[in-house]
Amino acid sequence: MTAVVTRRLPEADIAIIDRTATLRGRSRTDFVRDAAVRAAEDVLMETMPIRMSPAGLKAFMAALSAPAAPVSEMVDLFQRTTPWETAGAKKGGS
User: Please, what is the angle between helix 28-47 and helix 11-24, to 10°?
Assistant: First the structure.
């Protein structure tokens, strides 16, 4: 079953939708449908209760209560020199 959804939009809104749909290689209808469904799914995910067994809840709470442990990949990432921090770059420049 399909339904028709009609809504009048300001020209500025249509322009940005059309531009973005074109960048994605989609029609306006497909782009708007996908964006609306994605937004609806986001709201549902934010409002749906999470259900788990008492044992699952206990394990979840234990994981949250445990001391934080460093993740070696994240430590390595934050210790890397960024591309703009080279030996010849000015420090604190204007």
Answer: 90
Sorted by where each begins, the domain ranges of the chain are: 11-79
Distance CA 28, CA 34 (A): 10
Quote the pTM value: 0.54
53 three-state secondary structure: coil
pLDDT digits (tens, 9 = 90+) for 20-78: 999 999 999 999 999 999 999 999 999 998 899 999 999 999 999 999 999 999 999 99
**Separation of alpha carbons 86 and 78, rounded Å:** 16
Check: CB of residue 63 under 8 Å from CB of residue 56. Answer: no
d(CA 86, CA 90): 9
